[in-house]
Write a structure and sequence with these properties.
The chain is mostly helical. The protein has three helices and no strands. The protein has one domain. The chain is elongated, with a radius of gyration of 15 Å.
């Protein structure tokens, strides 16, 4: 569930940001898109930290180290 939240919460905020980008004119739409995506990313990360088990956190960190 933690990985689900970490993926779909920023995706949902990104969709809201895309809607704002399309419906609001000029720089306001761009700022709304960037701001909503960043807020969604932070919320997704915090939800992952809150709901992830210790094994999921270790697996996530191991995956990050191995891919670099």
């Amino acid at each position: 569930m933690a990985h689900f939240l970490n993926f779909f919460v920023p995706l949902g905020f990104g969709v809201l940001g895309l809607w704002a980008f399309i419906s609001w004119p000029g720089a306001a739409g761009i700022a709304a898109f960037v701001g909503l995506f960043l807020i969604g990313s932070m919320i997704g990360s915090r939800l992952f930290k809150r709901y992830a088990t210790l094994d999921q956190v270790k697996q996530d960190l191991r995956h990050r180290v191995d891919t670099q």
